[in-house]
Amino acid sequence: MHIKTNDTVIVLSGRDKGKQGKVLSVNPKAKKAIVEGVSVAKRHTKPRREGEPGGIISKETPIYASKLMRVCPKCDEPTKPAHNFKADGKKVRVCKKCGAEI
Question: Dihedrals φ, ψ of 51, to 5°?
Answer without folding.
Answer: 90, -10
